[in-house]
Hints:
Elements: H1 7-12, E1 20-23, E2 27-31, E3 41-45, H2 57-78, E4 82-86, E5 102-107, H3 127-136
Antiparallel strand pairs: 1-2, 2-3, 3-5, 4-5
The structure holds adenosine monophosphate (AMP).
The site of adenosine monophosphate has 11 residues, from loops.
Amino acid sequence: MSHEPTIFDAILAGEIPCHRVYEDDHVLAFLDIGPLSRGHVLVIPRERAAFMHELSDESAAALGAVLPRLCRAVMAATGCTAYNLLQNNGAEAHQAVFHVHVHIIPRFDDGSGLRLTWNAGTLETGEALAATIAAAVD
Length: 138
Ligand code: AMP
């Protein structure tokens, strides 16, 4: 767990610039400085939380509520008809900035956008695991 300030706190405080596309009391969205494709946007809560599982219900609700609107805006602005939402938690999961953020990454037919390897297995017996997870929901 890390609650150390990150570069996104500096962006939230206006100490370093960003290309802002949306903000409200709980959320800020801006262009990613290293875009995987044109229109790659980051959506962050103002609340300082490193990981999704640490985020308050209030911030999570605000983040979730605005995502469809921002996806529509990115689609309208870029003309993309496909996009990925990506949200990394932990260095092993490719997280580099330890402040919750959702990537909106348009996909175009020029090869730009998110590339991933989907190593799908086979679900043999899910009942016990599903029950264990269900029992852990707080
Ligand atoms: P992640 O690997 O999910 O932690 O992604 C962090 C993202 O933050 C990367 O896509 C970076 O390009 C982006 N990023 C880092 N610093 C900045 C910045 N100052 N302005 C905009 N995006 C940034």
